[in-house]
Automatic annotation (TrEMBL):
Top-level taxon of origin: Bacteria
All residue ranges annotated as the Acyl-CoA dehydrogenase/oxidase N-terminal domain in the record: 14-122
Family named by the database record: Belongs to the acyl-CoA dehydrogenase family.
Keyword Oxidoreductase appears in the UniProt entry: yes
Alphabetical list of PANTHER family matching this protein: ACYL-COA DEHYDROGENASE (PTHR43884), BLR3437 PROTEIN (PTHR43884:SF22)
Acyl-CoA dehydrogenase/oxidase C-terminal domain span: 231-376
Protein name, entry field: Acyl-CoA dehydrogenase
Cofactor: FAD
SUPFAM superfamilies given in the database record: Acyl-CoA dehydrogenase C-terminal domain-like (SSF47203), Acyl-CoA dehydrogenase NM domain-like (SSF56645)
Molecular-function GO terms, alphabetical: acyl-CoA dehydrogenase activity; flavin adenine dinucleotide binding
Keywords: FAD, Flavoprotein, Oxidoreductase
Domain Acyl-CoA oxidase/dehydrogenase middle: 127-215
Length: 381
């Protein structure tokens, strides 16, 4: 179910990376179901990702990475392959970049030298702590504070539904102060930091709540300038949002392959399911949706490689299109497979559960559509 890659304009280096990521995905097939059912880091998955060296894509070459800068197209290629194999593996890979990119862009030389090589080698796990009980899509409602006292920073508040909470070695944390919204880098072992599990999701995920109980940090823990956090947050989204679309395409492709194999081998009324018109229509509609989503995704990823900030709207379009398509595709695939699509723990059942959250995280579809519509209208004469 791999698409003709020539239509995606991938060069030799990108095709080699794609094969590398697919090989990693194939290597973890025996532990994928177990890992995808866990809400804590799976040691075998972490070992496999570390040994693959792919996490080095998440930092610049000067700090142990593979490329001069983090490449959105490369991240997208890898996430498509990893999500098809295991949502746990995909998440672990993605969060190394999402959780550390603010350090890459806004960190001091000391912060970069200390943390980024550890991110690249997977010695340290990263996390981005933005959301709170009353601050999800609307980050202006953040209540966690930082104040400067006696030459030190004091962080107080709580974060909710944070990916990698409880597993990460540091938290890039959004806080408010008199100057506005700021970012601080909080080591997970700092006194006053505590974590607890978030409510279990329909698709298990390493997720937790964080409490900062008057956490004292040096002033050097700041990331970027006071009150300028959103520039670093938007820079992170500009690089990584399109990769969610890549992951959605991988999930959809995996589900469609499961359904297509079932339709070809399963017989009803004396002939394969594939020979029944309604089933063929479900499969054809799904492949059409998948290929349209992939084309937009890779177009957006190529644009993000050239200028992430300028192409953020197109990345948002790809994220909406691909995640919405993945949900439609997986639902059709369950229908094609009938009772076989409802077996708990089966690949298609896992894809079904994993698809739904993708329309919510890193920008809910409805929120992103507001920005897309505004950009459209603003572009008119």
């Amino acid at each position: 179910m791999n698409s003709p890659e020539k239509w995606l304009n991938l060069g030799p280096a990108e095709l080699a990376l794609q094969e590398e990521a697919r090989a990693l995905g194939a290597s973890v097939a025996g532990i994928a179901a177990e890992a995808d059912a866990m809400s804590e880091i799976h040691p075998g998955m972490r070992t496999a990702l570390r040994e693959s060296g792919l996490a080095a894509l998440m930092v610049p070459a000067s700090y142990g990475g593979r490329n001069p800068d983090v490449d959105p197209l490369a991240v997208c290629i890898v996430r498509e392959a990893l999500m098809r194999a295991s949502s746990h593996l995909d998440s672990m890979f993605a969060l190394q970049g999402i959780g550390s990119y603010a350090i890459t862009r806004g960190g001091t030389d000391e912060q970069k030298a200390h943390w980024l090589p550890k991110v690249a080698s997977l010695e340290s796990l990263a996390a981005l702590a933005l959301t709170e009980e009353q601050a999800g899509s609307d980050l202006k409602n953040v209540a966690t504070t930082v104040v400067e006292k006696n030459g030190e920073l004091v962080v107080t508040g709580a974060k909710s539904f944070i990916s990698n909470a409880g597993a990460a070695d540091f938290y890039v944390t959004l806080v408010k102060e008199e100057a506005g919204l700021s970012l601080v880098l909080v080591p997970a072992d700092a006194p006053g930091v505590s974590t607890s599990p978030s409510p279990e999701l329909i698709a298990p995920h390493v997720l937790g709540e964080i409490v900062f109980d008057d956490v004292v940090l040096p002033t050097s823990a700041r990331l970027g300038q006071p009150g300028k956090a959103m520039s670093l947050v938007l820079a992170t989204l500009a690089v990584f949002r399109v990769s969610v679309a890549g992951a959605a395409c991988g999930l959809a492709a995996g589900a469609l392959e499961e359904a297509a194999r079932h339709a070809r081998s399963r017989e009803q009324f004396g002939r394969p399911l594939l020979k029944h018109g309604p089933v063929a229509q479900l499969l054809a509609d799904s492949w059409n949706d998948l290929e349209m989503a992939r084309l937009l995704t890779y177009q957006a990823a190529a644009a993000a490689r050239e200028d992430p900030a300028a192409s953020l709207n197109r990345s948002s379009m790809a994220k909406v299109a691909a995640t919405e398509a993945a949900c439609r595709i997986v639902d059709r695939c369950v229908q094609v497979m009938g009772r076989w699509g409802l077996i708990a723990g089966s690949p298609i059942e896992r894809y079904y559960r994993q698809a739904r959250p993708m329309r919510v995280y890193e920008g809910a579809s409805e929120v992103l559509k507001l920005g897309i519509a505004k950009t459209l209208c603003d572009s008119l004469d």
